[in-house]
């Protein structure tokens, strides 16, 4: 992959297998392939996680789920990983697996109308295993920090469960 300063939504879709409603990276603002990435996720009232809420939902109910915030950051790491030497090439049958998160600290909640900025750094690559670190923020406020995220690329064929065959 060549050096980019930004990636469009179409380019992100080429790098990640995720689609609606779980594609949680809207734009990549900065990318240094194999080194670092800055992306954004715009949280809106139209998120599927808010569909069940009534018109009287309060702030606590409108807080963006922490699991989706983490997923968005890890997807950003996946885009950065796609720019590293172990990147999945077109036609490649490898899948990125998030293996572990260490030192995750939440600092404040995220709400509809917030623009979340993810910063991800590739701190180490060991074969097809990548170690990331970084943070997410809204404006000048830290939202969550990640001391380490371990991601591994594995052949999809090894991950598929064989079909169950029934005896006649």
TrEMBL record:
<dbReference type="Pfam" id="PF07977">
    <property type="entry name" value="FabA"/>
</dbReference>
<protein>
    <submittedName>
        <fullName>Beta-hydroxyacyl-ACP dehydratase</fullName>
    </submittedName>
</protein>
<dbReference type="InterPro" id="IPR029069">
    <property type="entry name" value="HotDog_dom_sf"/>
</dbReference>
<comment type="similarity">
    <text>Belongs to the thioester dehydratase family. FabZ subfamily.</text>
</comment>
<dbReference type="InterPro" id="IPR013114">
    <property type="entry name" value="FabA_FabZ"/>
</dbReference>
<keyword id="KW-0456">Lyase</keyword>
<dbReference type="GO" id="GO:0016829">
    <property type="term" value="F:lyase activity"/>
</dbReference>
